[in-house]
Amino acid sequence: xxxxxxxxxxxxxxxxxxxxxxxxxxxxxxxxxxxxxxxxxxxxxxxxxxxxxxxxxxxxxxxxxxxxxxxxxxxxxxxxxxxxxxxxxxxxxxxxxxxxxxxxxxxxxxxxxxxxxxxxxxxxxxxxxxxxxxxxxxxxxxxxxxxxxxxxxxxxxxxxxxxxxxxxxxxxxxxxxxxxxxxxxxxxxxxxxxxxxxxxxxxxxxxxxxxxxxxxxxxxxxxxxxxxxxxxxxxxxxxxxxxxxxxxxxxxxxxxxxxxxxxxxxxxxxxxxxxxxxxxxxxxxxxxxxxxxxxxxxxxxxxxxxxxxxxxxxxxxxxxxxxxxxxxxxxxxxxxxxxxxxxxxxxxxxxxxxxxxxxxxxxxxxxxxxxxxxxxxxxxxxxxxxxxxxxxxxxxxxxxxxxxxxxxxxxxxxxxxxxxxxxxxxxxxxxxxxxxxxxxxxxxxxxxxxxxxxxxxxxxxxxxxxxx
Length: 468
What we know:
With about 475 residues, the protein is mainly alpha-helical.
């Protein structure tokens, strides 16, 4: 017994000794620094922008500057997205890599690594928020599209989650509609409604710069603040074209308020010269069209403005469509034109649903998808409407749309788990109606895989699966 006792005691001492050494290494200055740097990698490559329905935009997807002119929703919304060498994540990851070496070789320099990370993360965040205005107009349109989807899913079953829950920009139990997001807001403030990990990276780098500095607390704060000030200067420099564009835009608004339309046109052109990306935005098309309309001019910008007014002021969808559709049919249309026409057709489809005409609604959704194929809300609405109209077409819908929902490795176009789970549930319902219970069970299982949490249960899919 004494031998067994000594053996167990030796094993216990060895185990506790190893555990103590591991914990000492983990919670040492070097271990904590390495842990922070690895956590920074997660923040850098994680989601920086979140849309209502589409997949998140990560740090590796967002460029510093859109020199190619192709960082527009119609080109970058589809998933999976390629990691860009010109993304904001590249220099941040390079700093982290240098920090790992410094931590192992010269740990006293860690504070400078964190300061540099802070100074670069600030312009990266500023570029994300203000150098890609077309992306945030897409996010705004996603909110309206999510509202359309709620109507479509409600037509199928009131128990679907998209009908009774807010989108993923809203906390559970919040308002069903994001009316607060769609309230008039200055375009420079709109991006703050969609940011995610960027501010956390900035905050973490600031705290780490203070903690890693071996000095008095006032000097630590001064050290971190100096790096933050350098980062703010870099942020202003990186987004200077947007600030100049907004300056000229404000002058254009003032000239327009004074009925000096020619001068307002000149200032608007200066804003466009400062930041050419604004030419693809609905905001520019509306302002340009309004100035042309008030000067009794004609053209595609004026027609765009008139169509927008018909849509938002009087809900006259037929006139709105008649104003803008000829330009899209003639030359394919600019991004803003196609986006507006797709939205008009979407509301036409909703009207068909409300009046009990799902077949006509299906045709309208198909048109909307053809006009603006980069918007996932339209093809989800099309697939759901088809299933409601003709459940026998479930195999066709699965073959055409399920790859876009699931994607490769779970990276489909739909980021909203409620919407994705509801589409899979609708497929399960269609298979159930046609008697293909095996495929129905598979679709219900997929719906629960996409979204099913203990505190927010996917009841529709769960009941459908258990009921079989």
